[in-house]
């Protein structure tokens, strides 16, 4: 097998399918190549161990990584015309090496079931403050944040803080976490406020310190767009409170929260369904001790089922978010 041609085949097929990640993992005497697609993880090919290691070595060569090192974690990257590739390799306890390749596309966009939902969220963004989008990994949260930032950020300074950068947008000032170089969310958020951006996009709020800095930025007059892991729309509030943000602060800075999933259509494509809380409905949640879950999620799923856009199986699958 010509390893250069095989490597090109792997990348081409991943891009064709819109994969976000390529996994090259050892599996006993073989290597499995898997693609992470919007709604599932698929096995692309299984090859013998020798071919799998040769493939990893070839990618490491392209990314200026140390081919002789098979145990310690390494990272690298290369740029293509329409996308970037970020490589991460590490050895397991038995000495077998694995690699994950993140595909960063130049243009990131979601297809939405109801375009007015994105327009609604974008309208709220014009009010500034903090806007949070939640949902599981691979639900298109970052793409939604970028689309909002591009729409409201025309002729404005937009700065992103991500780990890692997932979408390339040349009109934004994009920064990235690098813990080995002591570049953390905290240090970049503090630097961001000195850079005086109009819009700040935070890849993910993971801890109390990041939450505090994002809230402070919003309270100081910035538009802050961020993602957060939560099980539903209104549980975002509980997550922030759990990270030490008080009720009064939330009432003053939180403009809108949303939850989203990428749901398969009967046509074979996937589209994004949003659930949004803002205005009076959001404000009423600040006065309650126990928060609800969704706003219009179930009703919208019923509409999509009635119109024959999604299947009954997917209706049942996504009812709880």
TrEMBL record:
Gene Ontology molecular function, alphabetical: ATP binding; ATP hydrolysis activity
Bacterial type II secretion system protein E domain sequence ranges: 193-207
Entry-linked Pfam families: T2SSE
An annotated GO cellular component: plasma membrane
SUPFAM superfamilies: P-loop containing nucleoside triphosphate hydrolases (SSF52540)
Keyword set, alphabetical order: ATP-binding, Nucleotide-binding
Annotated family: Belongs to the GSP E family.
Name the record gives this protein: ComG operon protein 1
